[in-house]
UniProtKB/TrEMBL annotation:
Keyword terms of this UniProt record: Carboxypeptidase, Endoplasmic reticulum, Glycoprotein, Golgi apparatus, Hydrolase, Lysosome, Metal-binding, Metalloprotease, Protease, Secreted, Signal, Zinc, Zymogen
PANTHER family: CARBOXYPEPTIDASE Q, PROTEASE FAMILY M28 PLASMA GLUTAMATE CARBOXYPEPTIDASE-RELATED
Superkingdom to which the source organism belongs: Bacteria
Subunit structure: Homodimer. The monomeric form is inactive while the homodimer is active.
Taxonomic lineage of the native organism: Bacteria, Pseudomonadati, Bacteroidota, Flavobacteriia, Flavobacteriales
Primary location recorded for the protein, binned into one broad class: endoplasmic reticulum
Protein's recorded name: Carboxypeptidase Q
Annotated compartments: Endoplasmic reticulum; Golgi apparatus; Lysosome; Secreted
InterPro entries: CPQ, Peptidase_M28
Amino acid sequence: MKKQLLSTLLLFIVLIGNTWAQTTEEIVAAIEKEGTENSQLEELAYQLMDLNGPRLVGTPEMKSAHDWAVNTYKSWGINAENQQWGTWKGWQRGITHVDMVSPRVASLHATQLAWSPSAGKKGVTAELIILPTITDSLAFAQWLPNIKGKIVMVSMMQPTGRPDDNWEEFATEKSFAKMKEEREAMEKAWRENMEKTGYSSRTINKALEQAGADAIAQSRWFNGFGANKIFSAGTDEIPVVDISLEDYGMLYRMVEHGQKPQIKIMAESKDLGEVPTFNTIATIPGTELPNEYVILSAHFDSWDGATGATDNGTGTITMLEAARILKKVYPNPKRTILIGHWGSEEQGLNGSRAFVEDNPKIVEGLQALFNQDNGTGRVVRISGQGFLHAYDYLGRWLEAVPDAYKNEIETTFPGTPGGGGSDYASFVAAGAPAFSLSSLSWAYWNYTWHTNLDTYDKIVFDDVRNNAILTAILTYMACEDPEKTSREKAVLGINPRTGEQREWPSQRSPNRKGGLD
Ligand SMILES: [Zn+2]
């Protein structure tokens, strides 16, 4: 009798085990099927990048993107809301048009920098001037009155518009080496001269404005055909534009030849005062452990030289799509799934730092966070971020992922805690298990990161599909795990760069009032 009971019990356990295994496999298969056969990524990318446009903090386009995200979640039956965490300088980009008007007429490839003041209704037409070679800051101060009523060119002229890989492919070894040597010498001379002015490339715009310049032109090329970085203006009154390497070089050579070229800048941006700034937070409530959380994380804001497709449109649509898939195939998660679309990552992880500061209970209940923010590529690296037992649980969750979605992933355990770079760091600093799903580059640094070329066409949808499925499976596994994840920190060892003992990064407060003095 006893024996029979025992064997029945054993059979029962085996059955339960099988059911669980089947369920896991079935759900993973359902995630894969939904993510592959009913992918919404192209449509989401179209709506976010093409239709809504860039998402610079403080712009009406940032707000409309937040509203779009909330409505998109609602259309999938997922609750979402915009949570205000601060205010920012309100600004809106307008028409930018820059033309050379003398010695001949040509339309230039140029755009206003973020937060650049307007050029007024009539625009600014003026002669260009380049920075002189000077002996010291006194000499620079003496030269400064020359810029009154002029447009100052503040970037070095590049000796070549061809990226290095293009030289490598076609140049003779000798001429490639010569070009690099000459360019290095130019860059060194430029840096030393800039130092002698008493300013840096960051602070010089303000000094030129105060000295009476009409406008500033820069060209921040980054070793990729046609790719310029488009950051912020750094002035209060005068417009700042970025001009393509090709046009900037032409104008620079004309100035050097004494041709006195003139350009006309039309730049109709609007200053909108102080505006609220948000995170969009979506929630799929947990059924068994509602106070424990698995967070899908991707910053929502972008720079505005293009449409922020790979920084961080791809991370954003990965998390949206993963949430959509999960709601469909796993609508009643054990733990709460929270999707965080952070504002103002680009100015210092501000949205996520604010969330961590404002939601200690959620941070305390964090089972795991998955962040994606370095381009469109397949996930190829995951670090344990210095959590001693990350290997156990991340390893367990990854086991459930079919090979096709993980066979290129290199893991590092326990790894070292990220001190910055993207929003997972805001949570790691608070001691919460947050991880970065790190992507293949696809020439991210040269071509799309903060550039004028970060657009829809650079998205590699098959890779993003891979990542959305991977994220959904990891989220499902983290939700179902019978154990709460350990937060025990590894001994961090010596930093080989500094020779000092590594320390866990400390939690930092966000800037809750940005761009407003
Ligand atoms: Zn980013």
